Q: What sequence folds into this?
């Protein structure tokens, strides 16, 4: 069965890490005799320049038709206002395709730095469609506004439906991993909104009796990640808490260059690195593509599991092993991990490991 992936390079280091992800997924396709095809389309500054918007409608339509999307990082903070075409492509894609679950692993690699000295292997499951995110939480208009020149308001939206489905994702993932779930909230202050989130979490407990369940306040969680991140398995939380904690967890795991993520809904999924476009590294062959390669492996696995296609799942696991082997070799480690290999050298090493597995 063939797989068509839509590749959207994005800005900054996007083109370089997308080339790396395609090279590795292409090699996996050959090695496991899969029929993976790539479609390319422009988003971000390239699309703005050519067609006047950072996310053309045709791209959105194509994203709905294909089997999966790989999204490069975007410099959306540098875009012009929405009225001048500066849409945040990743926010819009998440909303329009209902990619409600942002799955963000934080896993240590042998050979990569361990800033706190310990190995960690956890996954943050972050709600992706509401919360404090002004660009996606409202039906019409943004969730942030200024009633006068000196007052700014931001609305945080928490619904029962979105809470339930993200919590279910967290419980299911925990059940398939080490059977530990931590629900992160701030219900001592946000009694109604996080109270509703917690109520849904507690109502699901009975359906997952094998999963050890705990609740943590988000501030305590930030401290616990530093003290003992190794004790956590799956952490599920609302949008902004998940955004912040996942950067913290990725850094503890070895750095943003390693940080993969998948945006998944019930019909569609999009691979996307956790980090931004890193303009400081763009065009210099210095970016670590592990983040987008790992995200692409998550996408292959998601498609494979939905189709019960074992070859796709095996290919995804092989990509992860090949990446780990390239990181473990000091000669092919990238600069962010203390090595001297460039993006392209590292990618070639991953492909060689993949072919030899
Ligand atoms: P944006 O505004 O798009 O979020 P940013 O540069 O502010 O971009 P990030 O891109 O998330 O934020 O990353 C912060 C820093 O982390 C980068 O400037 C870069 O030095 C480092 N970094 C991020 N991604 C990578 C990567 N793939 N490889 C190596 N270093 C990276």
A:
């Amino acid at each position: 069965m063939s797989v068509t992936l839509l590749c959207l390079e994005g800005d900054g280091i996007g083109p370089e890490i997308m080339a790396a992800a395609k090279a590795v997924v292409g090699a996996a396709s050959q090695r496991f005799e899969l029929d993976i095809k790539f479609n390319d389309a422009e988003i971000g500054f390239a699309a703005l320049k050519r067609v006047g918007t950072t996310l053309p409608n045709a791209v959105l339509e194509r994203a709905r038709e294909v089997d999966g999307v790989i999204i490069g990082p975007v410099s959306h903070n540098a875009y012009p206002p929405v009225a001048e075409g500066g849409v945040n492509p990743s926010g819009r894609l998440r909303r329009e395709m209902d990619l409600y679950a942002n799955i963000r692993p934080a896993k240590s690699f042998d050979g990569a730095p361990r800033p706190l000295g310990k190995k960690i292997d956890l996954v943050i499951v972050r709600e992706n469609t509401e919360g404090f995110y002004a660009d996606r939480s409202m039906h019409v208009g943004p969730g942030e506004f200024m009633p006068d020149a000196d007052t700014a308001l931001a609305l945080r939206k928490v619904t029962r439906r979105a809470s339930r489905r993200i919590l279910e994702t967290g419980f299911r993932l925990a059940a398939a991993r080490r059977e530990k779930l931590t629900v992160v909230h701030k219900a001592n202050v946000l009694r109604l909104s996080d109270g509703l989130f917690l109520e849904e979490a507690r109502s699901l407990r009975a359906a997952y009796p094998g999963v050890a369940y705990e609740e943590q306040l988000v501030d305590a969680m930030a401290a616990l990640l530093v003290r003992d991140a190794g004790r956590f398995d799956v952490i599920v939380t609302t949008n902004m808490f998940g955004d912040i904690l996942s950067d913290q967890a990725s850094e503890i795991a070895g750095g943003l260059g390693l940080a993969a993520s998948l945006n998944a809904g019930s019909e569609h999924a999009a691979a996307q690195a956790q980090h931004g476009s890193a303009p400081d590294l763009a065009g210099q062959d210095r970016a670590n593509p592990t983040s987008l390669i790992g995200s692409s492996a998550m996408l292959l696995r998601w498609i494979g599991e939905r189709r019960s296609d074992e070859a796709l799942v095996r290919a995804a696991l092989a990509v992860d092993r090949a990446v780990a082997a390239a990181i473990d070799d000091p000669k092919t480690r990238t600069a962010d991990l203390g090595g001297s290999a460039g993006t392209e050298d590292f990618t070639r090493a991953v492909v060689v490991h993949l072919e030899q597995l």
